[in-house]
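Bumping with the actual sequence this time:
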Amino acid sequence: MIVILIFIRIAKSGRKLYVRPLAGVQAIEDAVGRATEMGKPMIYSPGISVISDIATLASISILSRVSEIVAEFGSRLIVPNYDPIVYSVTDEVVKGAYVKVGRPDAYKADDVYFLTQRQFAYASGVSGLMAREKPAANFFLGWFMAESLILAEAGSMTGAIQIAGTDSISQIPFFIVACDYTLIGEELYAAATLMGEDTRLLGGLKGQDYVKLIAMILLIVLFILKLCGVPGIESLLVVGGN
């Protein structure tokens, strides 16, 4: 905790902190530019979870930045939502992005809407949307379940650039196979931080990386001490034992 607070303080002081660039994040602006050149829309799915899910919150944070880029480029972004509360939030986020870049009149309320709370009905609806609109880019960012492969395959058949990200471990392989770029696990949270404007989150992200590094080094040292026969190490390495 102390390490994280130190890095948050460093970030708030204005010092730049290096974070490994993510290919999926770097590809987002290219995808929007490609869609603009082709005159085709983009589809953004924030997943099928509720607003309290951390993956959904990360997706909404990314959506905010994506919407700003779309508004600047004068492109079209379609956001079908699974949850009605998530819909109300994404609607305000996209609308706010257009206002922020000075183009409030370009916002189309019909492009951000609630679809359904039935899992496979949602998958069918988004798949049909992709078949009709022939988008140039698809974004699947958030919590997904069995519908992930349906969405990714349907989008792949349209020839769109696809950027996906989820912390649902069981669905990551499907996105990796069917999408051009995939944010794996915690990379989704990191992407939300990198695309946001809150320096505290960036400091927290950097601090967590150092905490993990310290934990790994500590485990390696303890393991070496165990191999050397140092007594009492077993009690430190056993988790949940007596």
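The tokens above came from a reply further down the thread. The chain has a mean pLDDT of 88.
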